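lol ok so funny story. i was supposed to be doing the assay writeup but got distracted and ended up predicting the structure for this chain instead. priorities right. anyway since i did it might as well share w the group, maybe its usefull for someone
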Amino acid sequence: EAATPRVSEVVGSLKMENIRYKADTLDRVHLSVDHREPEELKERLGSLPLPKFSVETLPLGDIRAVCENTGAELIIERKTTADLRVSITKSDRRAHSQTERLHTYQQEKAAEGILVKVIWIIEGPAGVYGVLPNTNQMAGWVNYQCAISEQYIVESFSTEMTAYLAAKFIQGFFERELTIKIRIGGKEIGHSSDAPTSPSLLKDRGVTHAHD
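and the output, tada:
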């Protein structure tokens, strides 16, 4: 039986210094990290060439990048697999509450014509499907996040990888193109990406919660 590869072998060499941003991104994007996040994450994101960087208390998400001109916003919620397990199964259903608050915020901004993208990064060697003992239950959570609430789930094996993914997502979300062009059949592929349409405005998506 083959040995399980170490995290370092799976992740490889992730060099934050190799990530480059366009001048517009450097001028307009403000990156914030919640002060309760690990020091390694704050240090790695703080090493990016984005001059507008802060560590503060964020009301939503753990990493936030916003364009000061358009208001377009990328929110990343970071969860270790252990934290996600507790936040799904504990009686307060904290993970569901977070999803609902993020969805409400997306709708409020969409009504103003502002795009907000939400990505959950699930960090840990066990992977997403190791979070709950029942695969059907975990598939239900993924369905609730991705198909119903229109929030993305991405796996990460370490805090280092989380920082690198966040840095790449900032580049992709605000610049809407690959930094290294892809050639197919000898032709360079051009792909322009506009902001997608607003997600559903339906309030009831199967999660009951109290309203003021």
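Residues 196-203 have pLDDT under 50 and may be disordered. The helical segments are 7-11, 23-28, 39-46, 81-89, 94-111, 135-148, 159-175.
back to the writeup now i swear
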